[in-house]
Design goal:
alpha+beta; single chain; 276 residues; six-stranded mixed beta sheet; seven-stranded mixed beta sheet; Nitrilase/N-carbamoyl-D-aminoacid amidohydrolase; 6 helices
Length: 276
């Protein structure tokens, strides 16, 4: 089946962002995709140093909007991420919702690893100043196979993806807004590495280009197969990339070479896994 990764250049103009996302989702569905992944903070991307200005509850307007569109298009949608307001907490969660083709919220994942980095002594982004780290993982059965959810900076932590693999993941979805500097150096390397070491498809949907003063994303949204091959990739600018994704190819590649089965420093539960 066809999967799509969507690349956007979001700003603080929410109506314009939603119009851009809707157009790209409609294009993905028209080209035959049954699942599409939006980038991190697709509906509202603000300057790096500010608090979230439009947090919402989990089942708020944005998720309802995604649900209506998913139902109309008969399209599974990984809704990028958004600032989720949680009762009793001062900080928000950076949360990725998953909507099925009936428009139902099937799962959500809150970003575990928060981007708190500075480069060369410069003032950097401290995502934790306004965002609470998530604590759980999310794995969902989709028409393309068992899919694990992640967000952006999680990409640098292979243990998260290995845990998803241990739970049965065949596909890994990654909404992201990688900075231009780190993206140039590490984006493709890390996306392909997570695919290879877990023998999973990677659906990496990224923000691209300048968004506001001093904020620019790298882009290069891509779909990578379990062998580490880049099957499809977005050129600069908003757009989408599509590729065939499914469990049969995962099984074929795992029979060909699955280094995970040789791992010795894994919990005993791994030794009782199902052989594919």
């Amino acid at each position: 089946m066809l999967a799509a990764v969507i690349q956007m250049r979001s700003t603080t103009d929410r109506p314009a962002n939603l119009a851009q996302a809707e157009d790209l989702l409609r294009r993905a569905a028209a080209q035959g995709a049954c699942l599409a992944v939006l980038p991190e903070h697709f509906a509202f991307l603000q300057p790096e140093d500010g608090p979230p200005l439009e947090p919402e509850p989990l089942r708020g307007p944005l998720v309802k909007w995604l649900g209506r569109l998913a139902k109309e298009l008969k399209l599974w949608i990984v809704g990028g991420s958004f600032a989720r307001r949680a009762p009793g907490r001062a900080r928000v969660f950076n949360t990725s919702p998953l909507l099925d083709a009936d428009g139902e919220l099937r799962a959500w994942y809150s970003k575990v690893h928060l981007f708190d980095l500075a480069f060369g002594g410069q003032r950097g982004l401290r995502e934790s100043a306004h965002t609470q780290p998530g604590r759980g993982l999310a794995l969902v059965q989709t028409p393309l196979g068992a899919m694990g959810l992640s967000i952006c900076y999680d990409l640098r932590f292979p243990e998260l993806f290995r845990r998803l693999r241990l739970k049965g993941a065949q596909i890994l979805a990654l909404p992201a807004a990688f900075s231009k500097l780190t993206g140039q150096a590490h984006w493709e390397i890390l996306v392909r590495a997570r695919a290879v070491e877990n023998c999973c498809f990677m659906l990496a949907a990224a923000q691209e280009g300048p968004h506001a003063a001093k904020r620019e994303s790298y882009g290069r949204s891509m779909i990578v197969d379990p062998w580490g091959r880049v099957l499809a990739e977005c050129p600069p600018g908003p757009g989408l990339a599509l590729a065939q994704v499914g469990p049969k190819e995962v099984q074929r590649q795992r029979r060909r070479l699955d280094s995970t089965s040789h791992a010795r420093l894994l919990p005993a539960a791994w030794r009782k896994r199902e052989t594919v």
